[in-house]
């Protein structure tokens, strides 16, 4: 479930990034590129997998 949501968030970011064509969007494009690289990193994927059980438990008990 979390992997699917993370993948969907990545798709949305990439789509939004592709629509930023104005030169004034350069800083925003750069920031989004950094976030996209983080989402695609193996470390992020590993952390997402390790943290999911704890996040699920915390959300269910709140």
Give the CATH topology. Helix Hairpins
Radius of gyration of CA atoms, rounded to a whole number: 15 Å
CATH superfamily: Helix hairpin bin
Strand coverage percent:
under 5%
Number of domains: 1
Quaternary structure classification = single chain
Stretches where pLDDT is under 50 for at least 5 consecutive residues are none
Mean pLDDT across all amino acids = 83
Q: How many helices?
A: 3
Q: How would a textbook summarize the main sheet?
A: none
By CATH reckoning, the class would read Mainly Alpha
Order of helices and strands: HHH
Q: Termini separation (Å)?
A: 19 Å
- Reported CATH architecture: Orthogonal Bundle
Determine the fraction of residues in helical runs and give it as a percent range: over 70%
Shape call: elongated
- How many β-strand stretches? 0
Q: Helix- and strand-based class?
A: mainly alpha
Protein name: Disks large 1 tumor suppressor protein-like isoform X2
Pfam families: L27_1
Organism: Diaphorina citri
Domain L27: 1-62
């Amino acid at each position: 479930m979390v992997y699917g949501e993370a993948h969907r968030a990545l798709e949305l970011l990439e789509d939004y990034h592709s629509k930023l064509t104005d030169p004034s969007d350069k800083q925003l494009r750069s920031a989004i590129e950094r976030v996209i690289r983080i989402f695609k990193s193996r470390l992020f994927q590993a952390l997402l997998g390790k943290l999911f059980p704890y996040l699920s438990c915390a959300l269910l008990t709140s």
